[in-house]
Amino acid sequence: RKADEGLATLSEDGRSPISLRQMAYVSGLSFGIISGVFSVINILADSAGPGTVGIHGDSPYYFITSAFLTMALVLLHTFWGVIFFDACERRRAGGLGLVVGGHLLVSGLTFLNPWYEASLGPILILTLCTGLWAFSTAGGSFHNVLKCLSCKQEPEGRVVLYSALQGPPEE
Predict the structure, then answer these.
(1) What is the CA 168 to chain-centroid distance, rounded?
(2) pTM of the complete model
């Protein structure tokens, strides 16, 4: 809220130039990208090496698994940002607890990493479930997704694409 007040004082019309949902998405995505960059840098440092991953009994799937984990963490941070902002705004401690608990769960699952199927599968399932939760938190619905995918024709012959989060434009 303090950032929103600061943005409002800097704008010309006295209103915040960015909505709370946009701020949640941008901050979550930014944190996810930074997390992914650091993860990729660590993986590249391992590949440049001394030694080669996969020799002496190590898994040859280290790099592909690391890529999928990095992707999942970028997405999870984006989803967690949306859910966390909404939970703070609506004062829902359960949502905050589930975001923090999910973060701890994903971090803990990475300790199983020589057994990639034991960590990667649950993390990807958690990513999918958290993405659906963030989508519904942001106001998305299955009905709007179907409208978006249908490319509905208007009388003038124009193709209209609806946003899955906002629905049809108001006339």
Answers:
(1) 25
(2) 0.72
